[in-house]
TrEMBL record, chain A:
Localisation per UniProt entry: Membrane
Transmembrane spans: 14-33, 45-67, 79-100, 107-128, 134-153, 165-186, 215-236, 248-268, 280-301, 308-327, 333-357, 377-396, 402-432, 457-479
InterPro entries membership: NADH-Q_OxRdtase_suN/2, ND/Mrp_TM
Organism encoding this protein: Selaginella moellendorffii
Keywords recorded for this protein, A-Z: Membrane, Mitochondrion, NAD, Translocase, Transmembrane, Transmembrane helix, Transport
Cited HAMAP family: NDH1_NuoN_1 (MF_00445)
Signal peptide limits: none
NADH:quinone oxidoreductase/Mrp antiporter transmembrane domain ranges (all copies): 130-427
GO process annotations (BP): ATP synthesis coupled electron transport
Domain of life: Eukaryota
Protein known as: NADH dehydrogenase subunit 2
From TrEMBL, chain B:
Highest taxon of source: Eukaryota
GO cellular component terms, A-Z: mitochondrial membrane; respiratory chain complex I
Membrane protein topology class: Peripheral membrane protein
Compartment(s): Mitochondrion membrane
Protein name according to UniProt: Uncharacterized protein
Gene3D superfamilies hit by this protein: Hexapeptide repeat proteins (2.160.10.10)
Family (UniProt): Belongs to the gamma-class carbonic anhydrase family.
Amino acid sequence: MLDRAELLGLFPEILLWDTTLILLVLGMMVARTPARPAAPFVRTVAWLGLHCVLLAIVLVGVGIPITINSIHDILLTDSFTHCCDIFLLVGTAGTIMLIVDHGGRDTLRAFETIVLILLSTSGMLVLISASDLLIMFIAMELQTLCFYVLAASKRDSECSTEAGLKYFLLGAFSSGLFLFGCSMVYGSTGVTNFEELGILALTRSWGVPDPSTGIPIIGILCIVVGFLFKITAVPFHMWAPDVYEGSLTLVTAFFSIAPKIAIFANMVRVLNHCFHDHDWQSLLFFASIGSMILGTVAAMAQQKVKRFVVYSSIGHVGYLCIGFAGGTTMEGIQSLLIGLLIYLFMTVNVFGLFCAVRPVRSQYLGDLGVFGKLHPLFAITFSLTMFSYAGIPPLAGFCSKFYLFFGAIRCGADVLAGLGVVTSVISCFYYLRLVKLMYFDLPGEYMIPPRLDRDNSIVLAITVACITLMFLYTSPLFLVTHYMAMGLFAESGVGFSGSVA
Amino acid sequence: MAALRRWRQHAGSLRNPFAVTQITVPLTPPEGFYRADWDYRGQRQIVPLAMAVPYIAPDAWVAPNATLIGNVKVEDKCTVWYGTVLRGDLNKIQMGFCSHIFDRCVLHVASESPVGLPPHLIISHYVTIGPYCTLRSCIIERECIIGERCVVMEGSVVETHSILEPGSVVPPGRRIPTGEVWAGNPAKFVRMVTFDETKAFVGFAEGIRSYAQQYFREFLPYSTAYLELEKIMKNGGVTLSH
């Protein structure tokens, strides 16, 4: 049985599960009654779900003073997981806020979308605090199973169906790879717990031919490749553009925000706790280089809005991978977390803008040109976000990239830092091209989007304020991320020595 | 003989096309019939007609006594001035971004167009239509100026950067090519639009918009007229239901 402290640590997850069930039952009862045939109940469900997520943020926040809480050795909650939970829930809340208004529109007719988002969020919460390979796999499967359904949620669109199928096949493949890696590790060590694996990794050597004395390098390789699939890092990114383009914009927003946070958190935990040797680093090193280069080069050639965002997010995954490609140092982890949070704000912002213009055609980047004249505020917001993505100084994106490169240089990965600078300079070209398109090119056709709804405007206002004003008062961000990284290292048992530096 | 008879019938119908034989109109309304000669509500600004509800963008300004009927779409930053009627009953009327229709214009649509074009009335963006115009099922492309008291009839197309001088009449199915100034009844070519004028259309429309902004600011989201009505009801005993 769980004792009181353990139960307290699980409160956010329990809240999300309960809400999921209640909303599912409520939705089925209300939406399918003969009195209101096929009433689109999405708006109400989204509103309730949003408040549930906000309540979960409060619950996680209340739980922060509980420093380390291990539940049956399979879930571990500490300062790192709590803050990652909050990041994740903020991302989810932002996405649901974008959805609330779209419930009334044509695209989103099934309230199950919201239920699935809540369910996958609870899966990701478990994933963040997982401290066992099996729990990690189960949580990851809970999350991705929800995502397969979400990707195919627009049933009358071929693109969405195709996206769902592609995502399902490649996701299942990567999960299989991941599970194979887990079983290899288990087969050679006999444990699945992170803590025990960490102790073993301290005492045993890597990749020794005799399986009784070493942790197989193949197992770790498979696990890392599984992770790279999930975060769309470069050699394993093929599914991402099609899936992101095919799905609904709101679903795409959720895909590109929430799982990144959860999987990065889990990845840091696994690689830092269990395998705090450097064998996986070269893999991440190359994934990072590849992601940065491909994200930059491929985004330059895109004509469609969503594909552009996908490639730019692949590039950003590359930048984030810098954070621990040079080894899990304190600076690296801290800069990774800063980068994640700022990426979260920027991506929520971008998708808020795209959700606002989506009802008119606006699939192509050229169609955005109207907004410089039509909606000056929209254009300014969009330009600020693009500047921030590009890393122009006073904005948050600059802060994130700067600290990532700084961390890379501190741990000796000068190549990564140099390449990162070069690619981000190149990426300025196409981010600024969008701004130029918006202000200086004459639009071919005037497509006028409907008015921004209130929730979307609130999200946009908050995120753009965070992006622009963050440089004025950065110390909370640094303190929080430092606190998180401290929590991670304090728990891992390797102290600060598990790094290259 | 038969041809002559047909011709005489035809001529007869031409003489008085509206001839109606003997309709007796009762001078007094039947018992129990009440028709108000004063509607306390005034004329509604937006008149939905058979599932078609006029759309006014939140950014557009429509004068309080303009009347939008049926399938009408007024997009962002448009202005519709006093006394104008947009009657989209048979087909749709569409106004593009930052177009202006001045006072007492009548925009209506025919059920069909003499040319192959769809009989919609489509006004593209940055178009300015002067006071007292009548437009029927025509297409005005972007950045045009239609002068005062113009009549543009069905199926005609006024192409980009054209100007119609005041009082010109465009007969059905006529195309005003791009960048030309036309005038007269029926409209005739006058001259080409100069380069400077071409550049000035957008600024002209935007100027009208910024001028209309002070009208826009004069109105609140909902009116306070209902308070007056409640006062009248309390004092004078006018009841809403009878």
